[in-house]
Design goal:
single chain; 23 helices; mainly alpha
Length: 603
Amino acid sequence: MSRLARLSLATTVCSFLLAAVGGLVRATDSGLGCPGWPKCYGQWIPPADHHAIIEMSHRYLASFVSVGVVATCVLAVLFHRQDKPTLRLGLALVPLVVAQALLGAYVVNRELEAWTVVAHLGLGMLFAGTLIVLTTHLNVTRTGSGDPTTRRWLGLAALGVYAQLLLGSWVTGRGAGLAFTDWPMYGGRLVPDFDGREDAALQFAHRTWAYVLAVVVLLAARHARRAYPANSAVARFATAASALVFFQIAVGVLNIASRLHSAVVTVHLATATLIWGALVAAWMASRRTETSGTTPVAPTTTSELVEEPSGTAVGVRATVSAYVVLTKPRIIELLLVTTVPTMIVAERGLPSPWLMLATVVGGTLAAGGANAINMVVDRDIDKLMARTANRPLVTGAMTPRAALTFAVALEILAFVELAVLVNLLSAVLAVSATLFYVFVYTLWLKRRSTQNIVIGGAAGAVPVLVGWSAVTGSLGWAPVVLFAIIFVWTPPHFWALAIKYREDYAAAEVPMLPAVVSINLTARRIVGYTVALWAVSVLFAEVGGMGAIYLVTAMALGAGFLWLAVNLLRDGTTQRAMRLFGYSISYVTLLFSSMALDQLVRR
């Protein structure tokens, strides 16, 4: 079993535990045990109240599952890119878990409104189902295409159980769990007298659908046992689902007898989740497993790429140097140049030195981790470009596994450091920049679109938001305009450099704008973004409440930027492009320094 298969399996198991704890939260009415989010009464450690402890346990377990999901996605992207189903499923997990977390916060804010709880459960089951499909795909060796009839029955049964889960959640949310206190009758009648009662209709629908489902699941299991060997994953999962159905009916009866005791309600939901998972696993396995009467095809397996360093072992100094290079220190310096002045503007003076140090350290760790992940992902194209041919993962000074471990450690450390010493908003913003840089820019846009650096450049603009939120604990229009300054500055800055290395990008088949279109057209785009940059920088004088020092500096620096951009348009040489690139670095340094000076002088 590969590392990714083991990690996916472990995350799947944890997701089922999360569902069970979620059922406990619902059964014990602990959903508002911690009315705030993500903290509990403003604290990470809940008070000594069982409702708060149950609810916070659910949140912490959700965080643990989220970490497993991100790790699963990263491994899928780095080591299984040739296996398209694995790559797609791995990438799909991240937006699902993010949406689930946001929906969970919304559920709390809406004070457990019935439809929000149902939506939360439904999305959670889709997330768990995606994990199960990935885990089954990785652990069941492909030996055939399976029996289509069995697959249809298993799919129908899985969809039916999913619908029953949602219906059961709605029954609970509407307080219809004890609409009838006898079984199998309904108030002593075979067909109840609804008399306009919503709770009676819901309870009747839930029970009736359960009986139908029991038949469907049993038929699906029967098809699976007939079409597949007894020791196959399909037959085993389908048999497990059919056995759990009988147990679930017994638990349902006990639910009524115990008047919805919290322990029984929790087991009821957990069992339903297991049935759903077993059917999804059986369905996926049926797509990969030969039937009893088919001829097996050659199995295909996915192995993880683990590159070992070439040559002799490197010394300690070289190893340390390689780790430093992974973080791209020059890029980090540029990001920090924008963070500290932003904090001074937000404070309208000099913030606490300890706060500035904590923010700078956290930002450095987050940016370094993002750059290291970028090198791991791009190691295949880095060796094709002269500019990047000496990077540690290309020369063999470091293995991808070591680099990835280092990068993840930096990100975790950055989040913890910022959350503890600064605030949670700054920590979330810093890590979100990394996720955007890795998944949106590096994995999605860089090799597919000429707009790669335009959209992906947003990650480099996040440090100003981190700096502002570190001081104020919130965001507003002023930091948004600062974000826009860096966002608009990034394309002309990077395209100027890319003009020099356009042949490298073409050789690596990276559609960076100068490698795809003419230098003249690139220069036109640069001029357009430079005009927008000038306008946004001047706008900040008004929005940010800046004085004459900043306004005059912004006007002068913008004029110089535009003059060099126009010169590049007139004469598109590499020399003029590099002159513009050098100026762009000085531009952002001087512009943000003038912001800080403006506020310190006016203090």
